[in-house]
Automatic annotation (TrEMBL):
Organism: Bordetella genomosp. 7
Protein name in the entry: Spermidine synthase
Entry keyword annotation includes NAD: no
UniProt xrefs under InterPro entries: PABS, SAM-dependent_MTases_sf
Superkingdom per UniProt: Bacteria
UniProt cross-references to Pfam families, sorted A to Z: Spermine_synth
Family to which this protein belongs: Belongs to the spermidine/spermine synthase family.
Signal peptide: 1-26
GO biological process: polyamine biosynthetic process
Segments traversing the membrane: none
GO terms assigned for molecular function: transferase activity
Domain PABS, first and last residues per copy: 13-250
Assigned keywords, A-Z: Polyamine biosynthesis, Signal, Transferase
Amino acid sequence: MIAMPRLPAVFAAVLACALLSPLAHAEPRLLHSEPSQFGKVLVFEEHGERCMNFNTMVDFGRQTCMSLDDPHALVFSYTRMMLSALYVRPDPKTILVVGLGGATLQNTLLRLLPEATIDTVEIDPAVAKVAQAYFGYRTGPRQRVHIADGRAYIEQAHREGRQYDMVMLDAFDVDYIPRHLMTLEFLRHVRAILAPGGIVVANTFTNSRLYASESATYAAVFGPFFNLREGNRVIVAGRDALPGLDRIAAQAKALQGRLQAQGIYEAGALGRFAAPIGGPAHAQLLRDPPAPEDPPRRAQ
């Protein structure tokens, strides 16, 4: 028998309570499972949060979580980073978001920007159904959802000459971003639909074998970009030259009251915009695969 060290009585009592607490071993409570052509969309609750995930409730990452006590709170740091891009473009009137999830970005933008209209492209109708049923997402004159592939929608917008003040790319799973939403060709379409002064805000990986190539690809299309990192990486790039730190600081100060209510504090967030970076010169750009060649044909 291995002897356990003697614990002070108070500490032992606290430890025993923690081990016996139902929260110590609480399992997620499944609320809903929505079938989808891409797999199941699960809605569950645990630790005071309602979450959405794909196929599993195991905590390898969450698509969306919403605090049950404060549904407007931003649970994930990456959403706070993405919304801090308003320091760069504080007054977007037209916003496109690729990826809906539980609509955290969309619902927050709708509250923060009363004059903005928000288009969302979501490939999976099951996600849109769940977002409306369980996460408070509502469509209307200022909030529209389009069931389509994000790239196909953006290419069509380019052909039709539509433009946006802000494009947010959030088609992000735990370990996967669709490759066709990362390439040079795709980002050229994104830049083409940005209005003058428009910005793209992309949620991506802090650590990835494609990190250098992704950086180089964004820099090749947009030039230097802001590289925000906390958990995830958020890239903020512009159609035109990005504003300097003095202007960003002034815009952050003007937004301070509204963004602090969302847990975005000027003192912490502003430092991430110290200086834009470029892509590493040695990195290979991410490109679309070449189109297959037509088979040889007999001359007529």
